[in-house]
Amino acid sequence: MAVPTATSLKDIYTDDALEAQTKRWEYFLTTFKSEYGQQANFVSRSPGRVNLIGEHIDYSLYEVLPMAVEVDIILAVAVQPSSGSLKIRISNVDSEKFEKREFEVPDDGDITIDATSLEWSNYFKSGLRAGLQLLQKKGSKSELPSMDILVDGTVPSGGGLSSSAAFVCASALAVLKACGEENVDKKELVELAVVSERAVGVNSGGMDQSASVFGQRGSALYVSFKPTLSATPIPVPTTDPEITFVVAQSFVAADKHTSGPVCYNLRVVETSLAAVFLAKIFRLKELPKDSAPLGVSLRSFHDAYFEKHEGIEDNTKTSAEELHSQLQQLSQLVEDYLVQEEGYTRDQISEILGTSVDDLNERYTSTFPVRAERFMLRQRAMHVFNEAIRVHQFKGLLSEPPSGEGAANASLQKALGALMNETQDSCRDVYDCSCPELDELCRIARSAGSYGSRLTGAGWGGCTVHLVPKDKVEAVKAAWETKYYRARWPDISEERLKEAIVVSKPSSGSVVFKVT
Ligand code: NG1
Ligand code: MG
C-alpha cells in the first residue's frame, strides 16, 4: 500500500480543523518562499499518535491499538540541482526554539548522527538515513538532490504524542519524494523508520511509526508485528453518544533517555531477559532472532512454548479465542515459575542461562547501558501477557459494537473504559511506568465521569488518554483545570491550558501534498 498524495487540505484534515489548517499552511508556504526565495515543490506530512491500549508491549512484538491524531509535522521541500556537494538546509517555523541548520551529505550517504545531544535536526537525519536505506534496498538508481526544507510541527514535543516518530516518518517520506520515488510503500517506510529512530532515541518498538504512517480517519489501528508488520483499521463507532477520546498532558517531562532504574531501555532489557529466562526454564530450543530491539521477545517465547507443548507450528494463524487462552496460560506460568517478587540479579540470571555475567552484559546491556541491580522479570512478563489479552478484548469489543444507540452504546463504552482502567493499574503497580501526576489526572477524570483513564506512551510523565462520554467532556475538562493545572500552576496561561487538553478523533496518516 503506497503513501497517498493529496491535492487539497480536505483530504487531510476534518472539516472542524480546516479553517485553522488553511491559515497555518498559507503562512507556512509563504514563510518557505521568503526564506528560500522560491516556492516549495511539495510538502510531506506525518501525524502524531495516541495509543488507546497495548502499552509497553510493542517491543515484545505483541499487537497494539493506537490511532493517529490530527496534530502533525509538515516538511515543505524544494529540491536543488546539486553542483558537486549535496547540501541540506533545514529551518523551522519556530526558529527561536529550533535554529536553522545546514549540513552536507557525504558521497557514501553515511550521515553521522550524534545521539548524545538533543538536537532537533537529528530527527530529520534519522529520516534521511531511513529514506536512503530504502532506496538502496530497492536497488534504486535515483540520487539524492540538495534540499531546502522548512518544518512546522503541532505535535507537542516530549508530550507523549510521538512527535519524534511523526518527524522521522515525514522526513523519510520527504527524502524519498525528493529522490523522485513515486510509490512509497507504507510498510517499508515504517520498518526503516523504526530502526532508524532507534539510532537517535531509545530502543523502541514499532507502534508510533506504524500509527503515524497507516493512520486512517475514523479508525483506530490494530498493529501487529508478527509474522510481519501490518496495520488493520478498526472503525470507531460513531453512534450516539459518540465515543470521545480526550488527551491530557501531565506537563511532567518524561526522560526516557536516562540510564536509571526507571527507564525505557531497562524495560526492553527486562522483557528480553524474561523471554530467554522462561525459554531456559521450560527447556525450549534457543529462541530465533526476531525484529524486537534486542533480537528476542516474549512473543517468540510464547510461540516456541506452544510449538513445543501443543505442536503449533505457526501461531500467527491461531484464533483470537485460542490466543486469549494461551496468554492466560502464560500469565499463570509467570505466576508459578517467576516467583522472585524482589527481582533477579545478574548472577542469578546468568546462572540459569548458563552464561557469564560479562556475556550477559555484552549481549543485553551494551547498546544502551542500564543501571540496575535487579531485573523485575516476574512483574514485566506479567504485565506484557495481561496487556496483550486486554488488546484482544478491546479489539473484539470495537469490532462488534452493539447495534443501536443509547444504553447499548454506553455499555460498550464502559466496557472499553474498564479495560483502559485495568491497563493503568497494571502500568502503575506492575510495570512501574506511571507517576503520581499521571495517576492523579486519571483519578480526577474518573470521578468527573470518564469511563476509562490511563497513561499513554512510555509513561513516567507525558500524556494520558481518557474515554469520556460526550456529555461529560466539559465536566472532565473543568475538573482537571481546577484540580490539576491551576492547583499546580496558579499562573498558567490560557494558551498553555489549551495545549494541555486535546479532544482527538482518529485521523489520517502520512501523505504527500503537491504544491501547485
Ligand atoms: P512514547 O513515549 O510515546 O514515544 C514509547 C515508544 C513506543 C512504545 C511506548 C510504550 C518511543 C519512540 N516509542 O512511546 O514504541 O513502546 O513507549 O507503549 O520510545
Ligand atoms: Mg517519541
TrEMBL record:
GO terms for cellular component: cytosol. Residues 414-485 form the GHMP kinase C-terminal domain. InterPro entries: Galactokinase, Galactokinase_CS, GalKase_N, GHMP_kinase_C_dom, GHMP_kinase_C_sf, GHMP_kinase_N_dom, GHMP_knse_ATP-bd_CS, Mevalonate/galactokinase. One of its GO terms (biological process) is galactose metabolic process. Keywords: ATP-binding, Carbohydrate metabolism, Galactose metabolism, Kinase, Lipid biosynthesis, Lipid metabolism, Nucleotide-binding, Steroid biosynthesis, Steroid metabolism, Sterol biosynthesis, Sterol metabolism, Transferase. Residues 134-216 form the GHMP kinase N-terminal domain. One of its GO terms (molecular function) is ATP binding. The keyword Iron does not apply. Pathway: Carbohydrate metabolism; galactose metabolism. The keyword Transferase applies. Residues 31-78 form the Galactokinase N-terminal domain. It catalyses: alpha-D-galactose + ATP = alpha-D-galactose 1-phosphate + ADP + H(+). Its EC number is 2.7.1.6. Belongs to the GHMP kinase family. GalK subfamily. This is Galactokinase. It comes from Tothia fuscella.
